[in-house]
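ARCHIVE ENTRY
Sequence with per-residue tokens
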Amino acid sequence: MTPAIVLALAFGIGVIAGLRAFTAPTVVAWAAYLGWMHLHHTRLGFLGSLITVVIFTLLAVFELVNDKRPTTPSRTEPGGLIARIVTGGFSGAAIGVASGQLVLASVLLAAVGAVAGAFGGYQIRSRTVRALGVPDYRIAVIEDLVAIGGGLLLVSRF
């Protein structure tokens, strides 16, 4: 895998984290568990364990449900944004480790991708809701599918 591809995948998984904070580490954990990403015998080897997959999957499902509530804070507020930067950077680290190269650059690009995904996703979602005049949750479900599908597509490249 070329360095450019590794960095593109890292940025992409960061964007996924920007859309849904727990989707990025969840798809990474599933990829490690299924053997798509080889993290065993590394410090991130725990991502391939069944318990990690279950925990991240439950957190991701909770986030998907909670995101539809009108009282949920914006992803661009400090708490949500920091969570996305952390989970994006962590997921980017896994991509760097699995590829065997550019780990620090992968972390940094994934963190940048998380910020881009958070703000970009917010703008796209809010503008689409206004333009189509549909309830927010309908666009949120489409965003969920994009995040899950995009995340799986990225981690299946290994």
Summary: The radius of gyration is 15 Å. Residues 11 and 110 are 4 Å apart (CA to CA).
